[in-house]
């Protein structure tokens, strides 16, 4: 707001209020607004930026004016990330969607995410030879694995040393995507 003006930023969260917002004048205020009103203001160009918690991950369409998403927190379930990107990457989007993920590379979570992204990439590569729609393939691969699996991988992975992470991860995720990598290896 200090750089782009007081009305440049909208927000979506579960409370429909954001305390502790510092205006360019230095005054601290509480902003209020429903998720629907915030999304509409953003889509109509009244807000340049939209900051959201997980409350904005479903049920709003942002493709008309937005093509860049910056993740500053990573849920342990990749399907939730896929849903976030789906707010932008949908029918009517006219530009390539850019997704930026901010993470500390020195954490166990970041190492697990890197391995998970690599594994999902291999699944997608194998499936892409059989189907055209890569977005649907990602949803299919993630949908074959429940949220409890990802919660377990991230929780347990925090306790695995970096020297054992590769072997542990390979053993733990061998059936990721319903065993699709092994099914595809014989084709």
From TrEMBL:
One term of GO molecular function: helicase activity
InterPro entries: Helicase_C-like, P-loop_NTPase, SNF2/RAD54-like_C
Keywords: ATP-binding, Helicase, Hydrolase, Nucleotide-binding
Stretches assigned to the Helicase C-terminal domain: 1-135
Record bears the keyword ATP-binding: yes
TM stretches of this protein: none
Gene3D superfamilies referenced in this protein's UniProt entry, alphabetically: P-loop containing nucleotide triphosphate hydrolases
Keyword Methyltransferase: no
A Pfam family of this chain: Helicase_C
Full protein name: C-terminal helicase domain-containing protein
